[in-house]
Design a protein that fits this description.
alpha/beta; TIM Barrel; eight-stranded parallel β-barrel; 15 helices; 47% helix; globular; NADP; DusB-like; nucleotide-binding
């Protein structure tokens, strides 16, 4: 299947930007900050997208929303905006463009109650007329290309992704990404990739399939079932920021780069940690980095590593950034000693 995928997949062009491969990092709130996107891009991800940014808050100068505009290395700077009012989405798009965004992505897929209760995110799939107004406003507000991310629909009685994708294409959207679940599924059950084919058949745009793509086998299957042009990897990249690039290389018929191990992995984790402290500051950075440290350890455990419980607890409860390098080094020294 891999060889067939490599032959069929064509590079995706969005505006002036040609993506280097067809495996993309999904926008994940609280996860795909500048630090994480920079590392994923370095390991060969074909596209990285910012955390979801609330448009009204961004336009009104909210500091955390402005932080999320941080530009990663190498790849086009794609900023994802969310909201429920065309005016504020348009204003947010202008701020993002002024801050250097190369592409604006509209979020119509987030299932969070906090977001959908405000009629943003995937709730807009229940209000297609409002969704179209928002798309028109964003396309009209920026000179940069606009893309759209959504789900199959609100629920199984409202699988309207093909219709909304077609309307978005007519408004000028240049790519759509479909998560293979409805909003009512949240992240439960299994993503359905086959219904995404209806979106592929409805539009002439590049279509990206998303949901439960955690390895190359899943990526190949998702592409085969959906007929999509690319895959988007979200939770599968937690603790494995190199995974997206590996899948992109494989789909392009290239030998994937090996995942970092031993001292190389330790150096990467420490660098990632330092980047997060720089991005968030000491107090918030220590707290925000804990989940990433935990995911790195989880990935090691998946590969058969045995990690000392008390050391893990010390790492994930450290109150000062200066404590973390020593604890991490102790963990890796123990792993090396066990392997000897």
């Amino acid at each position: 299947m891999l060889k067939n995928c490599a032959k069929m997949l064509k590079p995706i062009q969005i505006g002036d930007h040609l993506m280097p491969n067809n495996a993309f990092l999904a926008p994940l709130s609280g996860i795909t900050d500048k630090s994480f996107r920079t590392i994923a891009a370095r390991f060969g991800a074909g596209m990285v997208v910012s955390e979801m940014i609330a448009s009204a808050a961004l336009a009104n100068g909210h500091k955390d929303m402005a932080r999320r505009l941080g530009r990663p290395e190498k790849l086009p700077h794609i900023v994802q905006l969310a909201g429920c009012e065309p005016h504020w989405l348009a204003e947010g798009a202008k701020v993002a463009e002024d801050a250097g965004a190369d592409i604006i992505d509209i979020n119509m897929g987030c299932p969070s109650k906090r977001v959908t209760n405000g009629y943003a995110g995937s709730a807009l799939m229940r209000a297609p007329d409002k969704a179209v107004e928002i798309i028109e406003a964003v396309v009209g507000a920026t000179s940069q290309p606009v893309t759209l991310k959504m789900r199959l629909g609100w629920n199984d009685e409202c699988l309207n992704a093909p219709q909304l994708a077609k309307a978005a294409e007519e408004c000028g959207v240049q790519m759509v990404t479909i998560h293979g679940r409805t909003r009512q599924q949240f992240y439960k059950g299994k993503a359905r990739w086959t219904p995404v084919r209806e979106v592929v058949d409805a539009v002439d745009l590049p279509v990206v399939v998303n949901g439960d793509i955690v390895d190359l086998q899943a990526a190949e299957q998702a592409l085969a079932e959906s007929g999509a042009n690319a895959v988007m990897i979200g939770r599968g990249a937690q603790g494995k920021p190199w995974l997206v690039g590996q899948i992109g290389d494989a789909l392009a018929g290239r030998e994937p780069k090996a995942a970092p191990e031993g001292d190389a992995l330790l150096s990467l984790i420490l660098e990632h940690y330092e980047m997060m402290i720089d991005e968030y500051g000491e107090h918030l950075g220590v707290r925000c980095a804990r989940k990433h440290l935990g995911w790195y350890l989880d990935a090691l455990i998946e590969d058969g590593a045995v990690i000392d419980g008390p050391l893990r607890k010390r790492l994930l409860t450290a109150g000062e950034s200066a404590e973390v390098p020593k604890i991490l080094t102790d963990i890796f020294n123990q792993l090396e000693a066990r392997a000897a």
